[in-house]
Amino acid sequence: MENNKISYLSNAVEFLEDEINNQDVEAFYRACITHLSKNERLEKPKLRNFYSGKEKSEKTYGNYMDKLIHLLDKFQEEIQSRNAELALTKRPIIKTHIGGGSGNPTYYYIDFEDWETPPSFNQNTGLQKTETISQDIIYRTKTLKRTPWYLKFAAKFFAKTRQRQAFLLAVLIYFIAAPIALGFLMQLIPLTYWGLLVLGYFLLFNPVWNVIKLATHKIALIEHVFQPIGAVCISKVKNVKDSDSFLDIEREILSVVVDGTCPICNHKYNLKNSVQLESQSLFNRRIIGKCLNNPKEHRFTFDKDLMTGTSLNT
Ligand SMILES: [Zn+2]
User: Fold this and answer.
1) Taking residues 264-282, what's their average pLDDT?
2) Does residue 23 share a domain with residue 66?
3) Most buried by CB count within 10 Å: which residue of 24, 237, 253, 259?
4) Is residue 212 part of a domain?
5) Tell me: the pLDDT tens digits for 126-160?
6) In the predicted structure, residue 260 carries a pLDDT above the cut 90
7) What is the pLDDT of residue 127?
8) Residue 21 CB burial class (10 angstroms; 0-12, 13-18, ≥19)
9) If you measure from the C-alpha of residue 260 to the centroid of ligand 1, how many angstroms do you get, rounded to a whole number?
């Protein structure tokens, strides 16, 4: 622990370089730490010996020390993360012992303090902090205020297997037949009407595509400017008539907004409901939960049947 505390403080000064923003002061801090590695105390009147820049008053040197103590405290989490390999069970700090009267100068010394961790898991030391947080997430659903018209329409056909199949066939024909029909019609009808038909085709493209996704993936993101982020449409099992036959399932379409509380950000910042559903990436359309505070690292699976998820990074 003795050598480690010096390594910790030296690393800290290195980390704080930008904050200190003065080479003379930085060198001064290093010299003070070196002194403290060999001696128990660093007396305030001696501080001037460690400063190699233009001479300052004793009060200024004291102010420099106060600043270092303040910075060590302010950036303790960042400093700790750079010192994980030292495996310190307590945090090294510089303390000031105020002297009284003549012959009893103020001095600085290194002491240890418990890591400052959020109250909910203060029995753990800094390193285990992230490991003890549950990586599971429970999603909650809210009803969608405006269900898109095409989902209301498709819902009628999604209940029974037969109807569902017929409806999907029609949808697939739309994808294949409509472009061909548009090709033929170009020569037959006035261009204005034709243009309107093409416009109609493109307006229907996204709804039809969502219905196909709903049929194949049983879930689709409703991405629309008038819809809240995280709105999804789920093809939910309503009734299993014959448990041996997978196809004979009654389903219902559920349009909901889903969000969840990121377990990491909840522990660290008490932040609630920061997780929203999104596609994993432009190329991977898997629907996952992303935390708004840390969308690249705090990612969770989304299980529409359990309304739960686990971290994607473990
Ligand atoms: Zn988060």
Assistant:
1) 90
2) yes
3) 253
4) yes
5) 444 445 677 889 998 888 878 888 888 888 888 78
6) yes
7) 44
8) exposed
9) 10
Ligand 1 center–CA 265 separation, angstroms: 4
Does the pLDDT value for residue 184 go beyond 80?
A: yes
**Residue range of the domain that includes 180:** 138-310
Tell me, in angstroms, the distance from the centre of ligand 1 to residue 164's CA. 39
The whole-chain average pLDDT of the chain stands at 84
Look at the block and give the residue holding tokens 């399932």.
Answer: 249
Backbone φ, ψ for residue 83 (5° rounding): -120, 20
Q: Which of 103, 127, 151 is the last residue of a domain?
A: 127
Ligand 1 mean position, distance from CA 179 (Å): 45
Residue 71 has pLDDT above 60, yes or no: yes
Residue with tokens 């690393």: 11
Q: Rounded to the nearest whole angstrom, what is the distance from the C-alpha of residue 241 to the centroid of ligand 1? A: 41
| CA–CA separation, 25 and 30 (whole Å) | 9
Spacing, Cα 299 to ligand 1 middle (Å): 8
CA of 269 to the centre of ligand 1 (A): 9
User: Which two tokens mark 284?
Assistant: 């991977």
Q: In 10 A of CB 266, how many CB atoms?
A: 20
> Could you tell me the distance, in angstroms and rounded to a whole number, from the CA of residue 93 to the centre of ligand 1?
30
CB count in 10 Å sphere of residue 72? 20
Residue 132 lies inside a defined structural domain of this protein: no
Are both 177 and 254 inside the same structural domain? yes
Gap from CA of 310 to ligand 1 centroid (Å)? 13
CA of 252 to the centre of ligand 1 (A): 32
C-alpha 89 – ligand 1 centre gap (Å)? 26
What's the CA-to-centroid distance between 31 and ligand 1, angstroms? Answer: 40
In this structure, are 183 and 85 located in the same domain? no
Q: How far apart are CA 216 and CA 251, in angstroms?
A: 13
Residue 296's pLDDT band, with cuts at 50, 70 and 90, is very high
Neighbours of 294 (CB within 10 A): 14
Gap from CA of 141 to ligand 1 centroid (Å): 19
pLDDT at 258: 92
